[in-house]
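Need a sequence for this fold. Nothing fancy.
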């Protein structure tokens, strides 16, 4: 059984429709479509996860192409799963740099910006040129380790190997944000912090679900009840899980102190 065949029929259908629409919009310019994130690592949660994708194009996208892409993903994303996708052209992958440049990006965070541009026929966010994204170092590393090629050349032949220092910089940046946001978004932040802790401690690249199980087995027993609640909340449809500030701060301080010791 292929990795794609392990997806639910619904997810497989969504991926197929995205591939079909990208082929229509980009035509011969589509060089490859790749899956990373929880979907590639077997930890996709229909109630919590994004569909994480990377697209490689042969050349730069025009403003008109970006408008078509934005229009499509505004319709496709959150129907029913949020889509996070980045487009990188081959030239941008030739000589690796961190943060990595990209052509076009869609996530729900960008929804209002693109709706604004499309409604007013402006190009404030859909203009020519490209940006850079430090998260791409992590996405491409995950691709090399656990990614799935939907169409196009194999991952190893398409994407450069990201230096360890750039991958670490990418995930530690997210880790630092989680230190401040743990009370605001406890499930994502705790699982992400465990994932980073596991990587710096043992070099393992994991999904949030895998990190939760590792945390339960390896973190101190006094943190077990918190980690158990986190896993239960992540693996269920619950959106109203309650956590005490003290338990979140106790967890944060333990993991942060240990990551700092390892990295110092």
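Here you go.
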């Amino acid at each position: 059984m292929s990795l794609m065949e392990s997806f639910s029929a619904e997810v497989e259908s969504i991926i197929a429709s995205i591939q079909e629409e990208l082929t229509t919009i980009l035509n011969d310019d589509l060089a490859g479509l790749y899956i990373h994130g929880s979907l590639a690592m077997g930890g996709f949660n229909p109630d919590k996860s994004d569909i994480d994708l990377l697209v490689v194009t042969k050349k730069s996208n025009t403003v008109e192409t970006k408008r078509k892409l934005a229009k499509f993903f505004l319709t496709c994303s959150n129907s029913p799963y949020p889509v996070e996708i980045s487009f990188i052209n081959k030239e941008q992958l030739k000589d690796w740099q961190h943060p990595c440049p990209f052509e076009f990006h869609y996530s729900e965070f960008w929804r209002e910006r693109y709706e604004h541009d499309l409604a007013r026929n402006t190009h404030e966010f859909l203009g020519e040129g490209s940006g850079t994204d430090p998260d791409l170092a992590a996405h491409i590393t995950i691709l090399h380790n656990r990614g799935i090629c939907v169409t196009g050349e194999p991952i190893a032949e398409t994407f450069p190997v990201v230096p360890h220092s750039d991958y670490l910089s990418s995930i530690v940046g997210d880790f630092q944000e989680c230190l401040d946001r743990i009370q605001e978004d406890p499930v994502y932040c705790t699982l992400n912090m465990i994932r980073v802790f596991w990587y710096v401690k043992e070099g393992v690249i994991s999904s949030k679900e895998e990190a939760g199980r590792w945390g339960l087995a390896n973190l101190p027993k006094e943190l077990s009840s918190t980690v158990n609640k986190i896993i239960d909340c992540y693996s269920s449809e619950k959106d109203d899980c309650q956590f005490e500030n003290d338990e979140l701060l106790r967890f944060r301080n333990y993991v942060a102190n240990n990551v700092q010791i390892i990295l110092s």
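For context: DSSP finds twelve helices and seven strands in the chain.
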